[in-house]
Amino acid sequence: MRRGAIRPRSPSEMLEPSRPPGPPRGAVAPNAPRRGSGFMRFLSGLFTVVLVVMLAAGSVMALLYHQFETSGPLAVSRVVTVPRGEGRIEIATRLEREGAISNRWAFIINYMLRSALGPKPLELKAGDYEIKKNASMAEIMETLTQGRGVLSKITIPEGLTSLQIVEKLRGEDELVGDITEIPAEGTLLPDTYRYSKGMERRELLERMQGEMQRFLAAAWERRQPSLPITTPEQAIIFASIVEKETGRADERGRVAAVFMNRLKKGMRLQSDPTVIYGIVGGQGTLGRSITRADLDQKSSHNTYQIGGLPPTPICNPGRPAIEASLNPPMTTDLYFVADGTGGHTFSDTLKEHNAAVNVWRKVERDRKKDQPADAADTPDAVPVPLATQAAAPRVLNAKGTAPAVGSGASVPLPVRKPKQ
């Protein structure tokens, strides 16, 4: 044992560990609170919060930038009209509603940032704009801020066949590229389409198909629940017949009601335009008036010979014909015949119908008496094309009277009892 050491008072005390010496006088204990440590903890917490916020903001900005630069949702090119007076939120909402962008807020935030950080504020300009297929938000914003509006337009009338529409597009010099395949009948929506010079014809056709799909889907949801047609495809077939039967807006719904009533009763439609389509197909124009032999000719589209609807549409119907077909007025009409003034007389009984037929035949006889003897040699006496025949005098029969076909018929057809 060292000299000066404290002797243990007992053997047990000898076995206990020795206690460390106390801190020197004036020293601070290790676990004692230090001056200013609360402020440092506050700064440390504040820095952590700021770092988390910055990381979150950076992640959001990266996501918004990715959405802004990535390809857009449009499957086909389309034209979006921005009216005058709309603000950036209304324009972004319109673009989202039209399917051009997927998130209007991403568009708005990027627009505001670029407007604030750029050399001068950006302005979204009113106009008609062609939004390209899969165009990104960045491309759309550049188009709208630079005012790159559409330069050209083409009007596709209601009632044309797909082949006739393709031929019309081929005649547009500002369009490029050829069309190698004729779209299915009834898949193109007639309308006025705007396009930029150098656009592919095929791309414009795809736009027409997309517009038909969009409109038909919306119209089908608004249809009357008790219709005797069960699919959108049948609706287009039916609407194409209505489209070719009349060109008058005030009669379109009533014509649709006649055909709906006949379908419900299991009666044949006996529509002249279906006979013509069965003969010429997508060509559309017969070039003469139809004859008894045409009515007796068996084809997949001749609704004098087949029951129900033909297998395909006979043209591309417009919006009004589709709407009228899916929401016809409630009537009991089963027949209609031209009244000699450009309209039709509708009847719900065969007796009334036969009387209306006699009136029409008298009008036709009087018209022929007033016609010059050499009218057939004049340039005006040419075969009536299909689009004109659709609105020309015609008779829709069911049981006891044959139709008096188009305006070019030379003699009234004899009355017969058609096959049921």
The counted number of beta strands is: 6
Shape: elongated
Helix content: 40-55%
As a percent range, the share of strand residues is 5-15%
Cα(first) to Cα(last) distance is 134 Å
Lateral strand order in the biggest sheet: 1-2
Number of helices: 14
Give the helices and strands as they follow along the chain.
HHEHHEHEHEHHHHHHEEHH
Instruction: Please compute the radius of gyration using only Cα atoms.
Output: 39 Å
Task: Characterise this structure.
By secondary structure, the chain is mainly alpha-helical. The protein has three domains: 78-145, Endolytic murein transglycosylase (Dna Ligase, domain 1, 2-Layer Sandwich); 152-220, no CATH class; 225-389, no CATH class. It has 14 helices and six strands. A hairpin with a 5-residue loop joins strand 5 and strand 6. It is elongated and about 150 Å long. Mean pLDDT is 81; it is low at 375-420.
Brief characterization of the structure:
It is built from 14 helices and six strands. 42% of the residues lie in helices and 6% in strands.
